[in-house]
Amino acid sequence: MDSSTVRQLVETTTDNVERVIIGKRREVELVMVALLCRGHVLIEDVPGVGKTVLTKAIARSIGSSFKRIQFTPDLLPSDVTGVNVFNQQRGTFEFRPGPVVAQMVLADEINRATPKTQAAMLEAMEEAQISIDGVTHHLPSPFIVLATENPIDYEGTFPLPEAQLDRFLLRLALGYPSRAGELEMLDRQHLRHPLEGLNQVISVDDLVRAQDAVKAVHVSTAVREYIVALVESTRHHNDVFLGASPRGSIALFNATRAWAAIRGREFVLPDDVKLLAEPTLAHRIIIGPPARMRGIDSREVVRDLLNSIPVPQGGRQAMAPAQPLTRV
Length: 328
Fold this sequence. Notes:
Blueprint lengths: L2 H15 L7 H12 L3 E5 L6 H12 L3 E5 L6 H5 E6 L4 E6 L6 E5 L6 H13 L1 E4 L2 E4 L5 E6 L12 H4 L2 E5 L6 H10 L15 H11 L6 H14 L5 E3 L3 H17 L7 H12 L4 E2 L1 H5 L4 H11 L6 H5 L9
Parallel strand pairs: 1-8, 1-9, 2-5, 5-8
Antiparallel strand pairs: 3-4, 6-7, 10-11
Helix pairs in contact: 1-2, 1-3, 1-8, 2-10, 9-10, 9-11, 10-11, 11-13
């Protein structure tokens, strides 16, 4: 599979999702970037803008197994991962999998669960496995978590720790639809919700092949150095208390390869890095108290760094591979 095939696959999926999510093509494509990278997504926005519907629409479009976890303060880790139950007839313990055992998991309002329950997701998100009573259970492949949280309502919530935020490849917001988009939404839901008639358009095997194809996308030395310089500069910014970790460099590297493939290219451009820097790095940066007092957030810091760090020169030809890439 080459990049042009990946582009066609993503366009087919995005067009199908847009039957439900109107006017948010870029956000849908960013979620597809995470799927191609086997990464997780944190969707941070106010209630009612379509966070849950977006996740369901993507799961239906690719035909993956789907489970939803509604996070609440009384949710226990075993409610997420599963438990061992004693079978009296056989005289043995049997594993009863929890809702995290699925190819696509919606962690709805993840910041409403206690830190102990949030921690139950760490092993699953990082290693695609869970450990119950000392026994490791591997999760289905591909395994993707799409988590949602409301950034406005802080009552009864537990902020995600930095270690867990770092596990998310991307953080994005949907925002309110345009006036025309909201009117079209009313028309489409006149008789029934469009999600009810949404069909599968690609297979999970197609997605896995596309994930493998993304790994063949070329990233020039100049672009690699640009990525590292950008991430490294977050650790020395005056307004930053804690900069992005090396996992941030890897996330940006992988995300740019996926975005290039979605655009039908076999190589990454500096513009890809600039476009994906904010959704991949901002949530990994902790702003210092003085800067927070002045109302500065991590997104502004990333934009400031993009304006100050020199962009690699040389044009598209300099970024392309010297020899044709091996097809996957």
